[in-house]
Amino acid sequence: MAIRPFEQHTPQIHATVYVDDTALVIGDVEIGEDSSIWPMCVIRGDIQRIRIGARTSIQDGSVIHVTHDSRFCPGGQPTLIGNDVTVGHKVILHACTIEDYCLIGMGSIIMDKAVVRSRVTIGAGSVVPPNKVLESGFLYVGSPVKQVRPLNERELEFLEYSAQNYRRLRERHLQTIGVDNAAASAPAPSPKPPRPAPKARTRRPAPPKRG
Ligand SMILES: CC(C)(COP(=O)(O)OP(=O)(O)OC[C@H]1O[C@@H](n2cnc3c(N)ncnc32)[C@H](O)[C@@H]1OP(=O)(O)O)[C@@H](O)C(=O)NCCC(=O)NCCS
Q1: What is the Å distance from ligand 1's center to 123 Cα?
Q2: What sign results for the dihedral spanned by CA atoms 166, 79, 133, 131?
Q3: Taking the model in full, what pTM does it have?
Q4: Quick check: is 197 in a domain?
Q5: What pLDDT digit, counting tens, does each position of 16-30 carry?
């Protein structure tokens, strides 16, 4: 995996997180316990911060970025993602907030200052326009998204299942590449102060065992 600092910020990634070798995480990024970052994701916290909670999966090819401080956006805008969130394949999250237990459908785009309240499902291929707030407990679909209906019990249950499913899959991938599973109970590294780490960090698969 490539984990790179940007200026004074180095990504703070809990020891239990799976970051695929082909993913790229840069700068002011924190990722919580048991989360997973799948192949070809780009998480670029250079001009504002990115926070990803615990047991959240960011699936293949997704891109997460932020907005910088300017007169068009005073203070800039971070991207904040909660716990137990499933971000499907090839999603773009740009300077937005996603609360706990959401499912962001494959190929969706969520734009600046949009807020997705907890326990929302967004259908595949949806676009959430800037500043839009999606109400908790509903299904949203389309471009631009429209509220379709409240999620039923089974769908609400699925949001929790999905987070746990990816938590388990993360563990199988870590085992396959030979990362010590004891790390699963390690405490989160302190987010401050940032560690200077001029070189990219690369995790390589363990050599095959003999005998
Ligand atoms: C939206 C979704 C949740 C299904 O909701 P649903 O209410 O069960 O929808 P149905 O399958 O009964 O379809 C209802 C209508 O919505 C349409 N529809 C389904 N998914 C849609 C989508 N993503 N965007 C637009 N329309 C969609 C269907 O074609 C159907 O239209 P019709 O009534 O004109 O025939 C599902 O299709 C989806 O997009 N899930 C996201 C899955 C994903 O990306 N997971 C992440 C990877 S792990």
Answers
A1: 6
A2: negative
A3: 0.88
A4: no
A5: 999 999 999 999 999
Q: Which atom of ligand 1 is nearest to the CA of 125?
A: 23
How many independent structural domains does the chain possess? 1
Task: Give the residue numbers spanning the domain of 170.
Answer: 2-180
| Nearest protein Cα to ligand 1, atom 3 | 123
CA of 150 to the centre of ligand 1 (A): 14
The answer to whether position 195 is within a domain reads no
Q: What is the pLDDT of residues 28-80, one digit of tens each?
A: 999 999 999 999 999 999 999 999 999 999 999 999 999 999 999 999 999 99
Task: Name 172's Cβ contacts closer than 8 Å, sequence gap at least 6.
Answer: none
CATH code: domain of residue 21: 2.160.10.10
Domain membership of residue 100 (yes or no) is yes
Long-range contacts of 77-81 (CB under 8 A, 24+ apart): 77/48, 77/112, 77/113, 78/48, 78/49, 78/50, 78/51, 79/48, 79/49, 79/50, 79/51, 80/50, 80/51, 81/50, 81/51, 81/52, 81/53, 81/56
What is the Å distance from ligand 1's center to 147 Cα? 12
Q: Does 173 map to a domain? A: yes
